[in-house]
Amino acid sequence: MYSSVGVLAITSDHQLDAVLTYHAGDKSLAYCVRTLDLHLSFQSSVPALCCRLRRLLKQTTQIEELILDIPDISALDAQRLLRYLYFSNLEVFWTNFPHDALFDFLVVHPRIIDLSLGFCSLHACPLETIAASELSGIRGPMSCIPRLIRGAPVRSATFLDIGHPDGPHDILGISVALRSSTAFITRVHLEFRLFSLHRDLLRRVFEGPLIYYP
């Protein structure tokens, strides 16, 4: 566990229990924690861990940054964990949770400016319909984030899992999404699958009328 002024990082069940025990019945966590970093695995039963995590999240209501990294959590368990949680100051949210568990949480947190999402296996990602108008930085799979960032003041974008495209759809999606930003893009990071073999991929993204440079 790492703890400093404003930062609480937890990486095990034991550390989680220690924090909950030490702060049981008091409200000090709400006033002192601004960054909550949770990297946990299921060392105990899923319902028990989610219950304890909810207790912690409900005690850290003033956080500005939230990192949730819980491998192999199901969409249902992730939904139960996040249900009805609200952080009025939240601006940074990084998670590997299934995308279909995040919709309601993101809808009630429109002030998020830095968003990092894990991979997505959904044919139609529900996050594509969210109006993320405040985003300035985003990291996520190519299949999901182009529509999410359209019209947002994005300055930094990382596109994950760009594979060998069947047609122009992947590349066109990147270009249109970047063009729609209301701010000047200063950083674009593309992560390719190992079997991506297009030599002209970058040229197709950044050349032509779809991208404008200041």
Kindly summarize this structure in a few lines.
The protein has 214 residues and is of the alpha/beta class.
Features of this protein?
single chain; 214 residues; 2 domains; alpha/beta; disordered C terminus; 9 strands
Gyration radius, rounded? 19 Å
Return the domain count: 2
Mean pLDDT: 80
The end-to-end distance, rounded to whole angstroms, is 44 Å
Helical content class: 25-40%
Q: Count of helices?
A: 8
What's the order of the H and E elements?
EEHHEHEHEHEEHEHEH
Name the beta content range: 15-25%
> What kind of sheet is the major sheet?
9 strands, mixed
Q: Which shape, going by the Cα principal axes?
A: elongated
Sheet/helix structural class? alpha/beta
* Poorly predicted regions: 164-168, 208-214
Tell me what the structure shows.
With 214 residues, the chain is α/β, with parallel strands linked by helices. It has two domains: 1-112; 117-214, no CATH class. The protein is 29% helix and 21% strand. The protein contains eight helices and nine strands. The chain has helices at 13-22, 28-32, 46-59, 75-82, 103-107, 145-148, 169-179, 201-206, and strands at 2-4, 6-10, 33-39, 65-69, 92-95, 114-116, 137-141, 156-162, 187-192. It has a nine-stranded mixed β-sheet with strand order 1-2-3-4-5-6-7-8-9. Helix 1 (13-22) packs across helix 3 (46-59) and helix 3 packs parallel to helix 4. It is elongated. Mean pLDDT is 80; it is low at 164-168 and 208-214.
